Amino acid sequence: MVKELASQWLSAARISPTALYTGQVWQANGRSIPELQSLPASALHMALAPSMFFSRSFGGPTLEDFLLARHDLIDHHLTELIESKKVTQVIEIAAGLSPRGSRFVERYGDRITYIEADLPGMVAQKKKLLAQRLRVCPNHHVKAVDAFADRGAHSLDGLARSLDPGKGLAIITEGLLNYFDRDSVLDLWARISKTLSQFKHGAYLSDIHLHAQNADPLAQAFVAGLGIFVRGKVYLHFETAGHLQLAMENLGLACQVHTPSDFSNQIPACASKGADFCRVLFARPASAVK
């Protein structure tokens, strides 16, 4: 038992605190799978519980509120894409401890191909955790990716080459964009746009935080606290949804920017106080919507 606990803590040391915390939020709220449980993640979640309670008590946003809202809203859009048969292939970049791949493969079986992509260390850890699932689901993959690489097997283009361009592809980035500067994000989007244009149907889903929705002092304090938590800067790249849409249009992507609370009647998590701390973007190749 002691050896098992020590192994969990050693593995956790290789995973960022945001990945651990987010993974535990999904566990605690019935979004995850047993294989992704860990004591370090549970301990971190408990350690932050008082600060989340304090923020919620004063009507402020909480990490848990917007993490669940963005996750469920992305799930909602991905479900619609799969149910409509426009998408049968998914690449989730920086999948971390996300349970989405496992849950969607459980639900849709061999109707979809799902690639969870991340840095090599995270990939090695997740392959161990999901070993049994990956053995019985040949359409579920965990692969290394360098999302900013121009070419090579581990580039986004390299991953996409293993898929069928005659079918639809969805690319997902959750909890990623705001840890990179604007130029890096635009570079990533250019690669995503190029990749999606090669498929019969293409869609890109992501969360993002905007300046306009984080202008009040409480939200600014929250962003500052989030930066301390992730041990780095949290970037707010665009003032408004309109600025974001224009930037994506210049890269060949037509983008809708969704406010979680607009979906509160369909998605319970989108009715929480902190749900609108982020937005969810849904983009497609501009040529496909003309």
Question: Any overview of this molecule?
Answer:
Residues 1-14 have low confidence and may be disordered. The chain is built from 11 helices and 7 strands. The protein is globular, with a radius of gyration of 18 Å. The chain has 290 residues and is of the alpha/beta class. 46% of the residues lie in helices and 14% in strands. Helix 2 (17-28) crosses helix 3. Strands 3-2-1-4-5-7-6 form a 7-stranded mixed sheet, sandwiched between helices.
Helix tally equals 11
- Gross morphology is globular
In sequence order, what are the helices and strands, one letter per element? HHHHEHEHHEHEHEHHEE
Proportion of residues in extended strands = 5-15%
How many beta strands in the DSSP annotation? 7
Structure class: alpha/beta
Radius of gyration: 18 Å
What are the low-pLDDT stretches, counting only 5+ consecutive residues below 50? 1-14
Main sheet properties: 7 strands, mixed
Question: How do the strands line up in the largest sheet?
Answer: 3-2-1-4-5-7-6
Cα-to-Cα separation, first versus last residue: 59 Å
Q: Considering DSSP H and I runs of 4 or more, what fraction of the residues is helical?
A: 40-55%
Q: How confident overall, as mean pLDDT?
A: 84
